[in-house]
Design a protein that fits this description.
This protein is an all-alpha fold. It has helices at 2-27, 41-52, 54-60, 66-82, 85-102, 118-127, 139-150, 153-170, 179-192, 198-204, 224-234, and strands spanning 208-210, 222-223. The protein has one domain (32-83, 113-234). Helix content is 63%, strand content 2%. The chain starts with a helix and ends in a 6-residue tail after the last helix.
Length: 240
C-alpha cells in the first residue's frame, strides 16, 4: 500500500509541472507590454473577479483606507494575472495531504488567486500572531486549518493585509522616493518571499522575470513590480 502511495505522490510534481508548462505556453503569446494594460484579457478577468469579491475585501481590509486597500491588493495583483484555477485545483487537492502530514519540507505549493504558499502563511503567523492566531490544537490540525484558510478568500485578503503590516514594521525607517516606489518594493518582496534580504529585494524591483521567470526571459517578460504599479495607478477600466 505504501509503495502505491509513494508512486502516486512522486508522480504529482510531474503532473503539476505539465499543467504549468501548458499554461506558460499560453501566456507566452502575450507581449511584455500587454501585461501593463487594462485591455489585457487576464487583467479584465482579475478586475471582474475583484468586483465579485468586493464585500469580502472590505470585510478583511476594513481597518484600511480605500487607497491603502488598493495598495495592498496591488501587491498581489500580478499573481492574479497568471493564476490558473485548474493548476490550483491540481496542486491543492494532491499536495495538501502531504503538507498536513509532514509540513513544508514535503509540500509547499501556491494556493488561491494570490498564490500563497503554506510557508508564506507560517512566516506571517509568526510576525503577526494576534492577527493570525490559531486555537490550541495539534501541529497537524494547525496545518489542516492553514490549508483551509488559504483556500478561503477572506483569509487570503487577511494574510495579504498581514504581509503589508509586517513590511510596514520591518521597513519603518526605510525612505522611499514616492508611494509608487514603496509599492514596487513591497511587491518585489511579495514576489520573492519574506526571507529575501533587502539587497535582493532592491535588485528585484527592476528585474524582468514576470510572468515566465528568469529562465524564460526570451518569452517577453516584464517586471512584476511594474504590473503592480500599473494596477495601483490605473485600476480597472470598463470593458471595451
Amino acid at each position: 500500500m505504501m509503495q502505491l502511495l509513494s508512486r502516486y505522490f512522486l508522480s504529482i510534481p510531474r503532473v503539476c509541472a505539465l499543467v504549468w508548462v501548458v499554461w506558460a505556453q499560453a501566456l507566452s503569446a502575450q507581449s511584455a507590454e500587454d501585461w501593463h494594460q487594462p485591455q489585457h484579457w487576464r487583467w479584465q478577468w482579475a478586475c471582474d473577479w475583484l468586483q465579485t469579491q468586493a464585500a469580502i475585501q472590505q470585510e478583511a481590509l476594513e481597518a484600511f483606507t480605500p487607497t491603502q486597500q488598493r495598495f495592498i491588493v496591488a501587491i498581489a495583483f500580478p499573481e492574479m494575472l497568471r493564476y490558473h484555477s485548474l493548476q490550483n485545483l491540481a496542486e491543492t487537492t494532491t499536495l495538501q495531504w502531504l503538507y498536513v502530514q509532514y509540513g513544508t519540507a514535503y509540500a509547499d505549493f501556491s494556493i488561491g488567486v494570490f498564490q500563497m504558499k503554506p510557508s508564506f502563511a507560517e512566516a506571517l503567523e509568526k510576525l503577526q500572531p494576534k492577527l493570525l492566531a490559531y486555537p490550541k490544537v495539534s501541529l497537524e490540525e494547525q496545518r489542516r486549518l492553514r490549508i483551509e484558510r488559504l483556500n478561503d478568500q477572506l483569509w487570503q485578503f487577511r494574510y495579504l493585509a498581514a504581509f503589508y503590516l509586517a513590511l510596514e514594521a520591518r521597513y519603518a525607517h526605510k525612505t522611499f522616493d514616492s508611494e509608487l516606489a514603496k509599492l514596487r518594493f513591497y511587491a518585489a518582496s511579495y514576489n520573492l518571499g519574506l526571507a529575501a534580504p533587502i539587497s535582493k529585494v532592491d535588485a528585484w524591483v527592476n528585474q524582468r522575470a514576470f510572468p515566465h521567470g528568469l529562465r524564460y526571459a526570451y518569452r517577453g517578460n516584464t517586471n512584476y513590480t511594474l504590473v503592480a504599479a500599473a494596477f495601483f495607478e490605473q485600476g480597472c477600466s470598463p470593458k471595451r
